[in-house]
From TrEMBL:
Gene3D superfamilies in alphabetical order: P-loop containing nucleotide triphosphate hydrolases, PriA, 3(prime) DNA-binding domain
Name this polypeptide is given: Unannotated protein
Coiled coil: none
Biological processes per GO annotation: DNA recombination; DNA replication initiation; double-strand break repair
Domain Primosomal protein N' 3' DNA-binding: 23-106
An MF annotation (GO) of this entry: DNA binding
Protease found in the keyword field: no
Biological source species: freshwater metagenome
Protein's UniProt keywords contain ATP-binding: yes
Length: 594
């Protein structure tokens, strides 16, 4: 790549050279091309162009533009063939470069794809800014924005619209939602108030031209929003805000960067904010009485006195609701295959890690492994020393028949990955059983029952507690507040767990405080920065990386967990460590499931 100054005059007398990132998977280089005189007026930084590369015509993005360097032989350069419209502007290109470093991507293309329109856009639409006066606005959001932004803990059933209206009164607002459906619904409601809205990604040109509110799902974090005044993340706790594929960027962190550069407040909204989202930010929550009233009734079925392998997932409390003909009941069990939880047959205790309290699973050599902190121990009970451990819990398929017999009415099974290509009709039954997909696909539910909440609380992930609380929040949004009869049933042998206590009290702050202390003790984010390395050549790269200051590397199941004191230290280490030749390394920064 040739780094050159930007040319501002087309008649400088020198040819114009563009550095272009090809839109080709796996090709990370920047190539120099000449800008023909016919395109000098339309090609700018971020423009999408077509050019010839290795004998075929491909697309690409202009990431640098200017006069050629003195040692560059321009006679050997090919010319750009045509313009394919506008793309991310110079400010967005800088954001993409930052994101590439922040998530150790070593390439720009994934971020350029996200920041570009999904169709050819030759010019931005005319600006459609209005004076936002729509009501009602959230006094809490208004107060928090006046303080420079922060975290608004909004109960799951509360309307998010007043929060967005409060932000829009300050100027152009960029809103990122946890799902496409949520963004579409909120965009429609905003338009009805007379506010100009650009719904991403289809209205990219309108967003580029300038509107009151730019809104969309995760990818909208890279949407154009000229003169950004406020950035808002709705349902900050949702996992969908983080990209699953490498680079594993998070919309919250991208918007935090944009807001900082624009000197604009960032508002994170969630019924149960993550500890990373809360870190070094102002929190504003409702009064304890109001927040408690805004959550549904949480009924805990304590199974701690029962032998784990004899515990029925159909408790008497649940059966009473199943047989109530007027109630629609959704039963959640995130177990489709073989059971993973182990319990001691002598003392009834679940197999848990002594260090982090996570669940332990049996490995191929007969030892117990903790999936959270990677500790191992012999297959014995930590409480009584017995070596006789049993697997517990059946899956969804087997439970459906048992539910039908207990409920004495039809039961519909809902499992993620199934029924996607057919129209799902939740009016054919009033009782449902499935993985957490049931919370996304069913409407108007009166009772949500988590049949085996221990599997969520003891999942071998350091974020297990937050993810369990997020499931409860999702269920709470589905059933409504306690005053209207909303009810959640938690069947668990851990009634004193912080997640359960927070849910019963309707106070997510109980979990946040305990979780932050646990993360700091174990060295998990936000107390550190994490990354996972895997793939061919990963071992050699991890060995080289471990020699860098401030970096620790732990090998686990053909993966390498990298920990640093901060993201700056982590990024510096990755950028200054050479990758082995011909390696096929995948790096996950801020791994969502570790």
């Amino acid at each position: 790549m040739t780094t050159t100054a930007v040319v501002t005059e087309s008649d400088s007398g020198l040819p114009v050279v563009a550095g272009i990132v090809p839109d080709v998977t796996g090709l990370d280089r920047v190539f120099d091309y000449l800008v023909p005189p016919s395109l000098t007026d339309v090609v700018a930084l971020g423009s999408r162009v077509r050019m010839s590369l290795n004998g075929r015509r491909v697309g690409g993005w202009v990431v640098s533009l200017g006069s050629p360097a003195s040692d560059l032989a321009t006679s050997k350069l090919k010319s750009i063939d045509k313009s394919s419209g506008i793309g991310p502007d110079a400010e967005m290109l800088d954001l993409c470069r930052w994101a590439s470093d922040r998530w150790c991507a070593s390439r720009l293309r994934p971020f350029l794809v996200t920041a570009s329109p999904n169709t050819v856009v030759t010019r931005a639409s005319p600006a459609r800014r209005t004076k936002v006066l729509a009501e009602p606005v959230s006094p809490a959001a208004t107060s928090l924005l006046a303080q420079g932004g922060g975290v608004l803990r909004l109960p799951p059933s509360a309307d998010q619209m007043p929060t967005v209206l409060a932000a829009a009164r300050l100027g152009p607002t960029l809103v990122v939602c946890a799902s496409v459906d949520n963004a579409q619904i909120l965009a429609t409601r905003l338009r009805r108030t007379g506010i100009s809205v650009a719904l991403m990604p289809h209205e990219w040109a309108q967003a580029r031209g300038g509107v009151d509110v730019v809104i969309g799902a995760r990818a909208a974090a890279f949407a154009p929003c000229p003169n950004l005044a406020v950035a808002v993340v709705l349902d900050e706790h949702e996992e969908s805000l983080q990209e699953e594929r490498a680079p594993t960027w998070h919309a919250r962190d991208v918007l935090a960067r944009r807001a900082r550069l624009a000197h604009a407040p960032l508002l994170l909204v969630s019924p149960c904010p993550s500890v990373v989202g809360l870190h070094q930010r102002t929190l504003l929550a409702p009064s304890s009485e109001r927040e408690h009233a805004s959550w549904p009734t949480v009924q805990v079925v304590d199974q701690s006195d029962l032998e784990p392998w004899k515990r029925s997932l159909l408790s008497s409390e649940l059966i009473a609701h199943l047989r109530h003909a007027d109630l629609r009941v959704a039963c959640v069990l995130n177990t489709k295959g073989q059971a993973r939880l182990l319990a001691c047959r002598s003392c009834k205790m679940l197999a848990r890690c002594e260090s982090c309290t996570g669940s332990m699973v049996e490995n191929v050599v007969g030892q117990l492994d903790c999936g959270t902190c990677q500790r191992s121990r012999p297959k014995v009970c930590a409480t009584c020393g017995s070596s006789v451990l049993s697997r517990i819990r059946p899956g969804v398929g087997r439970l459906r028949d048992e539910l039908e017999a207990a409920a004495q009415r039809d039961v519909l099974a809902v499992v993620a990955g199934k029924n996607k290509d057919e129209l799902f009709d939740d009016t054919t039954a009033d009782v449902f059983i499935g993985t957490e997909a049931v919370l996304h696909r069913c409407r108007r539910i009166d009772v949500v029952a988590f049949l085996d909440f221990d599997s969520e609380l003891l999942a071998p992930r350091y974020q297990a507690s937050e993810q369990a609380m997020a499931l409860i929040a999702k269920a709470a949004r589905l059933v409504g507040i306690r005053e209207r009869g909303g009810r959640i049933i938690l069947q668990t042998s851990l009634p004193d767990n912080d997640v359960v206590l927070a849910a019963v009290a309707g106070d997510p702050g109980i979990l946040s405080q305990a979780e932050l202390a646990r993360r700091e003790m174990l060295g998990f984010p936000p107390a550190s920065a994490l990354a996972v390395i895997e793939g061919e050549g990963g071992g050699a790269f991890a060995t080289s990386l471990s020699a860098m200051g401030g970096i620790t590397v732990v090998a686990h199941r053909e993966k390498w967990l990298v920990r640093a004191s901060s993201h700056d230290v982590l990024t510096h280490a990755f950028m200054n460590t050479e990758r082995p030749a011909h390696s096929k390394i995948r790096i996950e920064v801020d791994p969502p499931r570790i």
